[in-house]
Design goal:
3 domains; 43% strand; 6-stranded antiparallel β-sheet; Thrombin, subunit H; 5-stranded mixed β-sheet; Immunoglobulin-like; 277 residues
């Protein structure tokens, strides 16, 4: 039976030390051994996880040792992932003298807490759920139950708008205390494919469309605004490559971005999406 090692998503992303059991005493005696680690398989198959193994090979001159390596698992799928790691030990003649397997299970935390502010009465998104600003959406997913503050009806995360904003399933016209500490409880580990594709693209592109009024803000500063030639056409969306985001000024920076900057761009329209090159 293959042994399983269970970790949280954060641990897997930062890197975990994987130690295989010592090879059996019956392993053929050699002057030196070549130890190899490889990824045998991973689940879910789509979207694929990125599994980095380092070191993935080394040489040792003793038959009594516990093979170890460091494994990092990254996936846009925020539910459970499973990675089967294979150990292969060979002699200098390339003959296999021992093999073994370990399964690494990375699972999300059941709950997350964050200070947040519900935008009451306005700022609706999509089909009408209230928006909530949070410190980070990295540990949040669609379908999580939202509790805390003055929420007194079943409320869930309807969509992830961006890295610091979510849409709720409920619309709140008013709340006595819209800013509070909220708890998000996972109700399912399944995420629909569209959400996964959007999450995968968030790190590489900024999408401007009717949902964000064709604007992108960072630390309360307006970074990008797309002005349509036809104000009546709300079907167009703009995808801007997210390059050098580390250069964006932070709240603590003394310099400010210019008040107005006009940038002329070139690009192409594909299926009502304007891609800036």
């Amino acid at each position: 039976m293959i042994e399983s090692l269970n970790y949280g998503l954060t641990d897997c992303e930062c890197g975990i030390t994987v130690a295989f059991p010592e090879p059996p005493a019956s392993m053929a005696k050699r002057e030196e051994y070549f130890v190899y680690f490889s990824l045998e398989s991973s689940l879910p198959r789509e979207p694929k996880s990125t599994v980095d193994i380092s070191p993935n090979a080394y040489t040792i001159g003793s038959s009594s040792f516990a093979p170890k390596t460091i494994v990092k698992v990254n996936s846009v799928h925020r539910g459970e992932t499973q990675s089967l790691i294979k150990l292969t030990i060979k002699d200098k003649y390339n003959a296999v003298v021992h093999t073994n397997y370990l399964k690494i299970v990375c699972a999300p935390e059941a709950t997350a807490s964050s200070n947040g502010t519900i935008l009451v009465g306005s700022g609706n998104y999509g089909s009408g759920g209230s928006l909530m600003n949070v410190a980070s959406t990295s540990k949040l997913d669609v379908g999580m139950l939202v509790t805390g503050g003055d929420i007194d009806v079943p409320t869930y995360i309807k969509s992830i708008v961006n890295s610091t904003q979510i849409e709720l399933t409920q619309f709140f016209a008013e709340l006595a205390n819209p800013t509070a500490n909220y708890t998000f409880t996972r109700t399912t580990s399944c995420v629909d494919p569209d959400t996964l594709r959007r999450r995968a693209g968030q790190a590489n592109y900024v999408v401007l469309d009717k949902d964000n009024n064709w604007t992108y803000t960072y630390n309360d500063k307006l970074i990008i605004q797309f002005i349509r030639q036809n104000p009546e056409d709300d079907s167009i969306s703009v995808r801007v490559p997210a390059v050098n985001t580390s250069k964006l000024s932070g709240l603590g920076d003394k310099q400010d971005l210019p008040g107005v900057a006009i940038v002329r761009t070139s690009g192409r329209v594909t299926n009502d999406e304007y891609c800036i090159s």
